[in-house]
Amino acid sequence: MKLIISEKEIAAKRIASILSGNGQKEEKVYGVSVYHIKLGKDECAVIGLKGHILKVDFPKEYSNWFKVDPVDLIDAEIEKTPIHKNIVQALKKVAGDASEVIIATDFDREGELIGYDAWQVAIGKNSLLNAKRAKFSAITNSDIGSAFAKLEKLDLNLAFAGRARQDIDLIWGAVLTRFISLASYQVKENFLSVGRVQSPTLTLIVDREMEIQAFVTTPYWVVNVKLKTDRGEEFEATHKKKRFLKKEEASKAFSKISGEGEVLDVNETIRSIAPPTPFNTTSLIVSANSIGFTAAKTINIAENLYMNGYISYPRTDNTVYTASIDLQEITKMLKVSGSFADACSDVLKQSKIIPSRGKKRTTDHPPIYPTFSVSRQSLSSDEWKLYELIVRRFLCTLLPPAQIKSITANINVSGEVFVANGSNIIKENWIKHYPYYKHEDVYIPNLVPGQKLKIIDREMLDKETKPPARYTQGKLVEKMEELGLGTKATRHTIIQTLISRGYIRGNPLVPSEKAIAVVKILKKHAEKISSPDMTSELEMDMDGIARGDETKDEVVEKSREMLKDVMVNLKNVKADISQEIKKAVKEDFIIGKCRQKDCDGNLIVRVSKKSKKRFIGCSAYPKCTSTFSLPQLGMILPTKDKCKRCDYPVIRIITKGRKPWDLCINGDCPGKDEKYKNYKSKKPGQKSSD
DNA sequence: GCAAGGTC
Q: CA at A296, C1' at B7: how many angstroms apart?
């Protein structure tokens, strides 16, 4: 018997079905589905994993944060232990009868490692078991057929490269997290995490906040004139200078406006606007963010749509359709349901469909596209919004570019040059079917040089330069991809991690004081982990391992030595670190201004000496004895928001496995009971969608 | 209880 191992249960089922022409027989082994099929003359069993089945960790004796010096973790042994016990059991049992293992996990580095781990588990009872590799980029008849027709060798070096990443991430993450947390007494639920991906990501947000804080606005002035042709057509033109930095100059230009205008010259250009490229995970998150979905919400809903068979696999880097996807067939299928019939017709009436393509071409999965035509009624409103976005995006990638005409006219008004810009779409093509693309036609009439224009109004506007914008979750995911931080499957969870650590909040994202302090310390004393360079260097090392130029042990050892140097520096400044973080944490704990008359204290979180319970008190105690009660569990974050009902400060309570709870501190707030009831009805462990 | 990477 041959044993085929795939990365997930749903893929196992589809592979079994394709290889057997839907002749698979399902058996449950320790609750795990195993599909029995016949492949040529061979009996085969197909089993699906749940991603990684083993995790890395330090031995138990290192688990107490207070008893182990973080530095001792650097050279500690690293163990691999099962994550999903039933799958490991089932795998071992089925492997007992196997003569060969075929690894059919995702065609990427982690897929190779997941497959290698599964093979090692399978070998346990069967020391002669060898492994082959099926490589495919889409679970379609043709791709699966050719992958199994020419099986390859499992790429051990590629798997070891993945293993190096696991070890290095664990060592650096655990050592620095424990050190920073212990140094500042931020322990238990308040611990301060540090990691190869999360820390550079946090640095992006903090750097942006610093830029905003340091930004000095400069005033400028804009001078406009409103004009009219003989035929009565009205339009606007702006002074050629656009921004006047001196008010006197703007006033001078403004006061000169009189008499009539004369067209100096007119320029027309026609621009093509290319259709959007096929969705991968990042571009889906970015687009969905602009219609109001957080990154986590997008991923949750997409996962749902995928599990129901409505869209293709949502975790992909690829932006180029693979040849085995029949774009025309999918369009025909979508046309039937009616909601997108117009767009489908436009696609199908082309003599040849030429799909757009993005810059990233990978082997992991196809781009995200609809796989089933589903009606609006059978989805929730959010599901439909996302599904519609994916369908429209898909259809637009199959349509020709739009064309936009731009007109620029220079107009002389009393010796000053004003510029009128107009633009209008002359060929809609894909834009017609993609309402998410915002384009507004700007009208200007047909003008000819020498034409005289009547002045009907003039204005001088006071403006000022604006600081750069904070990152939205979408923009952040995009930036992370650009810098190589995280993967398609983890970028949104990294953002969630930073939120649940109390480092950042909101969308756009604002860092807390402790986030600013941690980033400052890392930049100064552990620069390596605060920068995306650590990831790019790791990528190079992993490529080296995959090529066979270096070994996994050499790379991990080199990394350990580097961390030891970093720790020597950090230990020298432990007292400063402690001071700096404690100060920031204190500032984060200012809930708002005291509400008592004539008191200028701050409301802060305090702990009662008697009962050891926490509460909100005034910093002016004992002069002011104002207090508010607090929930005793969860992390407390000030939000700087005021309660809509009673205007008292609102705090956010974050408890692991629960949706964040926004709470007004006023015990007598009219909305309080209702909010608390809402919170209580959420079960622990329930997934938060924002 | 630490990370980041899979998947649910």
A: 15
